[in-house]
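look at this stuff:

>
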Amino acid sequence: MHRRSGLLIAVGVCAGLATTPAAQSGSTSWDTRFRELPQPSNIRAAMERLSARPHHVGSPYDKDNAEWLLSRFKEWGWDAEIETFSILFPTPTERVLELLEPTRFTAKLEEPVDPADPTSNQKGEQLPTFNAYSIDGDVAGPLVYVNYGRPEDYQVLERYGISVRGAIVLARYGESWRGIKPKVAAEHGAVGCLIFSDPKDDGFGAGDVFPNGPMRPRDGAQRGSVMDMPVYPGDPLTPGIGATADAKRLAIKDAQTLTKIPVLPISYADAQPLLASLSGVVVPADWRGGLPITYRFGPGAGRAHLKVAFSWDQKPLYDVVARLRGATFPDQWVVRGNHHDAWVNGAEDPVSGLSAMLEEARGLGELRRQGWAPKRTIIYCAWDGEEPSLLGSTEWAEAHGAELQQHAVAYLNSDGNGRGFLEVEGSHTLEHFINDVARDITDPETHLTVWQRQQARAIDGAKAEDKEKVRARSDWRIGALGSGSDYTPFLQHLGIPSLNIGYGGEDRNGIYHSIYDDFYFFTHFLDTDFAYGRTLAQTGGTAVIRLADADILPFRFSNLADTVRTYDEELQLLVKKKRDEIRERNREIADGVFAAIDDPRRPRAAPRAETIPPALEFTPMSRAIETLTRRAVALDEARAAAAKKQAPPAALAAIDVKISQSEQQLLDAAGLVHREWYKHLLYAPGFYTGYGVKTIPGVREAIEQGQYDSVPMEMARVAKALEREAAWLDGITKMLNALK
């Protein structure tokens, strides 16, 4: 599902702190030995096998792949099983899209077989182009073009006096998650939503199209879920509980995360006649795509008919779960995951990440045969059902939630993998750790470390006034996690420290979620020699070994405190920026800038004056951050001193449990407003961004949405969570200082 995001970081936490076997023993470390083991040929072979046929949820090859994965784990010495869940996964029974006026046109709604691509012809097994969890619908109405279909795009429509009420909207893929587009359209009264891939974004405007290049061809379309996952992910009928066979389920009519209007994805070949039928004002420059037509808002003579219907069946879900039992701290778990289901063949998404993770598992099994025994239990998971809505990971995490909060020390995720830079997002307590891992991984293209390559990129991308700050900081910053892959239930629901890792930035890929995402495409246009597949395996395996073998978990809390301080600063700037922007818009309204409705270049309706944000008191949150900073520094210092002591395993185990549960102090049992499933107060997917993260989401979204009365309460909740975290860290510091 996720096109590329990050997760892991690196090794020691403080100067002189031993966290790796090498530092502890003085001999060649197990993670150094491990990095010699991954082989590109094995990763290639696994991809070829796993992506040989379509393997969406409920398909025969999805089950076949799960059984094959199970056999591989067992062959490598893992204790493995398949856990099965039963989930709602509707598939299309009818799809019709017609232009009724001013001319007749019937959309093909089909991706053609390409003779160069040997698996594109598996028509009987391929899911058609559709958006999962759209409701059934049979609607007709005028067409309106809404750009990317974001809330801000509807603000532009309002300024031009254009309503989508009763209309079918045309929205471009991109800039926000696809599920946001029908959500916002329904809020504005639309009766249907069409999401098209514009050639400017991932088609011929960005490069040669498949099969001559990696970009989307004219009849290519992007499948994908439109479930309202910012409310909750997973099975729509079992929110908060595992979707076991006997689970109590909601009626379909009561599921909150289904769309309110019918939705369908279409190609730019099918979109062009619809867009060409629109009349009215020409759209602003940044709304114009790459088709050889004049982009207009509509409505006009264009009128369309959309009909979709679905099966609404329960489907089986196959999670493959494998374990290596820890020798010293068996009740502490390092969990690693990547999904195995795909929309069609899925070589890039997800098999490029999964095949690398499998090579990690093979390498860890080989180390075990050589005599290595991990101190902590390692759990590797190949999730099913990620593409429709993080089904396999969410149901497993909900079913085992209490165990995971007690035993899981970290969750490490990957998804699709490409070429280029190590991209990392996750819990900032793990930021220093993943930086240290990155310092020991060699980039196969530049032969620098992947840390050096990413650091150079960070410096190059920084503003001129910030470059020195980036150079001076000992760790490059990792991003925060929104959603779009299987880390979501672990971090944002259960409070398990999480990272998402993968390589990317050099490859171009326009065949996302199409029938052309297959072995042929990957081996012609992406990581063709699987060098970065090997690098991902080295990165993931190194991180797992170091987390599994550290005497004291290598978390660094000063990185967290430093990051939260930046969020506080961003929020204060957000208020100032919003205040200035609203004042300027209100000034324009007062000056009559929007009065000239006869000029087509001008907006056609004067918007109402907006409320200027009141003065907001940030002091309680800022003071909590100051306290957290002091406690974090003290803990990091105590941890460095404790690493030099010979403490008994029982004492270390108690400390590690407290460290791993520190993330849970940032949860609030009440959850976020209007979406109680999300409980983390620092990281969440945006209510109107979907994948994109909102940090300190309760405060940030209240400000963005003009709900200023709720800001003080949300700030108070965050301040209390930070105070809980600071007190928790103080307790760990005292335990560390008490070690003899």
In short: Residues 3-27, 595-599 have pLDDT under 50 and may be disordered. The CA atoms of residues 91 and 300 lie 33 Å apart.
